[in-house]
Amino acid sequence: MLVTILEATRGYERWAGAQIPLVRGQLTAKHKAMKEDVIEFLRATFYRWAQVFPSVCPDLNSAVSVLAAGDNHVASYGTWRDAFGRLVWGVDDFDEAYHMPFASDLVRLSTSAVLEATQSGLRGGIRNVCTLVLDGYTEGLKAGGAPFVLEEHHKWLRAIALEHLDIPAEFWKKLDKLPILDKRIPAAVRKGFRKMLPDPKLPYRVARRTAGIGSLGRPRYVAIADWQGGQIAIEAKAALPSSYIWAAGIADKKIYYEDVVTHAKRCPDPCVRLDRRWLLRRLSPDSSPIEVEGLPRHKEQDRLLHAMGWELANIHLGTRHGKVLLADLRKRPAASFRAGVKNMAKAVTSDWKDWKQRSR
Fold this sequence. Notes:
three-stranded antiparallel beta sheet; five-stranded antiparallel beta sheet; 14 helices
């Protein structure tokens, strides 16, 4: 029998706190944000999803295992620059990557889109969402995967991406307002910054930053420096093994972030790396999220959901041959995915309501 959402949250945070020094003030803010709406709750609680999915969707939980994104939802996609400076789009969050049924990523993405429809202009009927995501995923598998490089191809997506990029002046103004830390930071973080900086002797200042909701509570440090006529910034975030490990009771302390990025059919961001137990990445106005509910037209929303399904194929193809995944898909009628999305949306909403009542 499943424990309550309150008990699950306490258990997960005890597990996480035994591995890294959690920032308690951020956890308090996270718990408050989880009350705000069901979408924020979903994004903050992959640990609960990993608990609930096997019992709510036992048939889909038997799907072929892949190295999956894990905490995948409509806000998990954004842009970055590859090693040749090309603008690339795709999943930009692999904190929860682990070996799990491929169907979990598909159902979680679709569930997030359906829940978004409850309070935005997204055309989020379960049938429409599942059809778009599954079609994109299937086409991606059949094609053997293909990265979303926004140059001569995907002009429609490039136009959307350019509209969502941060304005550089405003981006750096926001970073400059972050409170500068005057205390020592972990030695591993300083070593990581030195490795990432263009000159290891380059002076920099360190600030504290909060972002997102799923990883609130993890220490984050940002190194900001002046270099060759402009500013650069590198973030270090404490890394944890996937909460899927905690939920399943698996004895595995490995962090799979780099594994999934290395093997997926994508153009990786060269300025993202895992250094010991710290995830280091460049902060840039070219690295911006693109959320489907922010698009004004249904046609664009549909195309983006289809592309999100394809991008999941790019990721899953890193550890499984497309023929294996397609064969498994053929055994699962689309109705089973729609039922899974419907049932998981109910389960998430029920937990959210319970959280609002039980938590303080």
